[in-house]
Automatic annotation (TrEMBL):
Record-listed E.C. numbers: 4.2.3.1
Residue numbers carrying N6-(pyridoxal phosphate)lysine: 140
Tryptophan synthase beta chain-like PALP domain boundaries: 104-417
Organism: Desulfosarcina ovata subsp. ovata
Reactions it catalyzes: O-phospho-L-homoserine + H2O = L-threonine + phosphate
NCBIfam families registered for this protein in UniProt: thrC
Protein name: Threonine synthase
GO MF annotations, alphabetized: L-serine ammonia-lyase activity; pyridoxal phosphate binding; threonine deaminase activity; threonine synthase activity
Pathway: Amino-acid biosynthesis; L-threonine biosynthesis; L-threonine from L-aspartate: step 5/5
GO terms for biological process, alphabetical: isoleucine biosynthetic process; L-serine catabolic process; L-threonine catabolic process; threonine biosynthetic process
Length: 500
């Protein structure tokens, strides 16, 4: 549609122009800093930052209903910069002009309702939001679209040049960072740090394919993160982990999309997300709070954050009695099939503590909960979901296992509707499925295959056949007919088929 075909009342607002006044605000000392510098922690106290719009209240000049119309009509525009996460420009990066926006097809991922069998097995109505259908096959593209659009803006303004982007990763972050940096060559180059042999081959192939400099180091993600932090502190590089507050802004789009896809009715909704470095749950809470503040939604949904018992520092924190006695203690993680969430010291933990308190206070009751699940439950639920028409990764299995815990604990009920996060494409973690089917999990994972969920290919080559097809060696017509009949007969017998 063209602008003159839209309602007159919203035409002036459909194509956003740069607005607002963004600054970094420290969660520790509350100091404010200019966004014209590449900052990741507060120069004064070292605490993490959130991006704050000093002029956010200007958005309240329009009613919540008008904002709903703007966003709903905006989806019909054919402007590339508004097709992705920047459909919500005023809430994500209002100072960034549209010609600085980097759009590679991210955002607006499918929300697929679970079939009857899976809903009955789970005990409530739920949908999977398949973030594995982002360009690099994970939710990380949301944050990278924001962070790299911001860097692109600084380059266009002449504020910075010759940028080297760098990140630590368990796989998905590196894939997204390398992809978006590659799009902005030659202005931006990319380097990624990975824990040696703790990233799936599929994930490792992605930054290599995008041309990034890839470094593997001993240890786990937390060790990689310390090296990246040292590089960011001592050298002129752009850090692209979720310590980067622009990443959080981009990931808020996940909550905006859920609100829009469910017609902004959030009172009876439950959003379930896995927790790794804690950037995602931070962004989801902040996004819903913004929409609520402006009146686009009139209730805050429940949020359930999920961790494996092998990497559960956030769960451990909230398991303690509320009050001044609560202490966050980093942990040494154990092997987990939810590999991207295998993080013992999440950098966004201060953001989580701040936003959980604010979220529950604004809601007037506890609306954020934290569940712990077993490795066994993660694998069993992932395979069960995919046997019922989904493409859930292990983290999608973790989220579904978390929903089961939330129901068991009475945090949610069967009358509500859940939206489950599958953060990446199932193919990225297919190696864990293979280990399940072959019963080859190392002991540290504590996963035992259930026979009903194991699936293996069956080789069909009837023993009585003298000749079978071979590449480059055509068979005689009679021999091939005999082969087809024998193989079809054996398959029909295995499947219990009846002849016509």
């Amino acid at each position: 549609m063209k602008i003159d075909q839209f309602p007159e009342t919203i035409r002036p607002h459909l194509i956003p122009k740069p607005s607002g006044e963004l600054i970094y605000r420290c969660l520790g000392c509350q100091a404010e800093h200019s966004i014209e510098s590449l900052l990741y922690t507060c120069p004064d106290c070292g605490q993490v930052l959130l991006i704050h719009d000093r002029r956010f209240d200007r958005l309240k000049a329009l009613s919540g209903e008008t904002w709903q119309q703007i966003l709903d009509y905006r989806r019909m525009l054919k402007i590339p910069a508004l097709k992705g996460i920047y459909r919500y420009h005023e809430f994500i990066g209002p100072v960034i002009p549209l010609d600085s926006v980097v759009y590679l097809g991210e955002g607006h991922t499918p929300v697929v309702e679970a079939n009857t069998v899976l809903q009955e097995k789970t005990g409530m109505r739920f949908f999977y939001k398949n973030d594995g259908q982002n360009p690099s096959a994970s939710f990380k593209d949301r944050g990278m679209a924001s962070a790299l659009s911001y860097i692109h803006f600084l380059i266009q303004e002449g504020i910075i040049d010759e940028v080297l982007s760098i990140c630590a990763s368990t796989g998905d972050t590196s894939a997204a960072a390398a992809l978006y940096a590659a799009y902005l060559k030659p202005d931006i180059k990319s380097a990624v740090l990975l824990p040696h042999r703790k990233v799936t081959p599929q994930q490792l192939s992605q930054p290599l394919g995008s041309g990034a400099d890839v470094f593997e180091i001993p240890g786990v993600f937390d060790d990689c993160m310390k090296v990246v932090e040292a590089l960011a502190d001592g050298y002129n590089v752009a850090l692209l982990n979720s310590k980067n507050a622009w990443r959080i802004l981009g990931q808020e789009s996940y909550s905006y999309e859920i609100a829009q896809d469910f017609d902004y009715a959030m009172a009876d909704k439950v959003v379930v997300v896995p927790i790794g470095n804690a950037g995602n749950i931070t962004a989801v809470m902040n996004g819903f709070l913004k929409f609520f503040d402006v009146g686009i939604i009139d209730a805050l949904p429940k949020i359930v954050g999920v961790q494996s018992e092998h990497a559960n520092p956030v769960y451990n924190y909230y398991s303690q009695t509320a009050g001044d006695g609560r202490r966050f203690v980093p942990m040494t993680v154990k092997p987990s099939v939810a590999q991207a969430a295998m993080i013992g010291n999440p950098v966004s933990m201060p953001r989580v503590i701040y936003l959980v308190d604010r979220y529950n206070r604004v809601a007037g009751e506890p609306r954020v909960f934290f569940a712990q699940v077993t490795e066994q439950a993660i694998m069993d639920w992932q395979l069960t979901a995919n046997r019922n028409g989904h493409i859930a990764c292990t983290h999608g299995g973790e989220s579904l296992a978390g929903l089961e815990e939330a129901l068991k604990n009475g945090w949610v009920n069967a009358k509500e509707t859940a939206i489950i996060d599958s953060t990446a494409h199932a193919l990225k973690f297919s190696g864990f499925q293979d280990m399940y089917f072959q019963d080859s999990f190392p002991e540290g994972f504590a996963v035992q295959p259930k026979p009903a969920l194991v699936n293996q290919p069956r080789y069909v080559c009837p023993a009585h056949l003298k000749r079978v097809p071979e590449p480059g060696k055509p068979m005689a017509k009679e021999d091939f007919a005999t082969f087809v009949e024998a193989v079809a007969g054996q398959i029909a017998g295995d499947l219990g088929l009846k002849k016509r």
